[in-house]
Specification:
157 residues, alpha+beta, at5g01610, DUF538 DOMAIN, 10-stranded mixed beta sheet, 10 strands, 17% helix, disordered C terminus
Length: 157
C-alpha cells in the first residue's frame, strides 16, 4: 500500500496529463472569432480549421485538414492555403504570412501581408497589392476537406 505522500505526486501528474491531452476548455474562442477580434472577417480563412496557436507576441499557426484552393468571388483570383499557415497578427494587420498564395495568370505568388483599411482588405505580394471589399470575405470558403466554419476549434498555447 502506498503512502499519501507518494500518491499525491502521481495524482497531480495524472491531472496534468489529462489537462494537456484534452486541450483548452470548449469555451475557448475559435480561430474565426480570434480573427474577428483583430478586425478581420472570418472568411479570410477557409472552413474546417483543425487547431490554432496564438502566441503572446502575435505569432500564430493555423492547421487545416488539407491544402485548399478556392476563387475569390467576382475577382477571378485563385487562392491556395497550405495545410499549415503561419504569421504574425495585430489589430488590422497580418504579417510574415507563410502558406497563403494567389495565382495571377499562370504564376503562384505568396501573400506576405494582409491589411484592413476601412471596409477594404489589402493583400500584399512583395511590393504589389490588390484590395477587395470586406464583403467578399463574410463567409468562409469551402474546401473539399472542410467542415463547418463556425465550429469551435482547439487552441494550443
Amino acid at each position: 500500500m502506498s503512502s499519501p505522500s507518494n500518491t499525491l505526486p502521481a495524482l497531480l501528474l495524472l491531472l496534468l496529463f489529462l489537462h494537456l491531452s484534452l486541450g483548452r476548455p470548449s469555451n475557448s474562442p475559435s480561430a474565426y472569432e480570434i480573427l474577428e477580434g483583430f478586425g478581420f472577417p472570418k472568411g479570410i480563412l477557409p472552413e474546417g480549421v483543425i487547431s490554432y496557436q496564438l502566441d503572446e507576441d502575435g505569432g500564430f499557426q493555423v492547421l487545416l485538414p488539407c491544402d485548399c484552393e478556392f476563387r475569390v468571388e467576382g475577382e477571378g483570383y485563385l487562392l491556395k492555403y497550405a495545410r499549415r499557415i503561419t504569421g504574425k497578427v495585430k489589430s488590422g494587420q497580418l504579417k510574415e504570412l507563410n502558406g497563403v498564395s494567389v495565382r495571377v495568370l499562370v504564376v503562384w505568388f505568396g501573400i506576405k501581408e494582409v491589411v484592413r483599411s476601412g471596409t477594404d482588405l489589402y493583400f500584399y505580394v512583395g511590393p504589389l497589392s490588390a484590395s477587395f471589399p470586406l464583403a467578399n470575405f463574410e463567409e468562409c470558403p469551402k474546401c473539399s476537406c472542410g467542415s463547418v466554419c463556425s465550429t469551435q476549434m482547439v487552441m494550443d498555447s
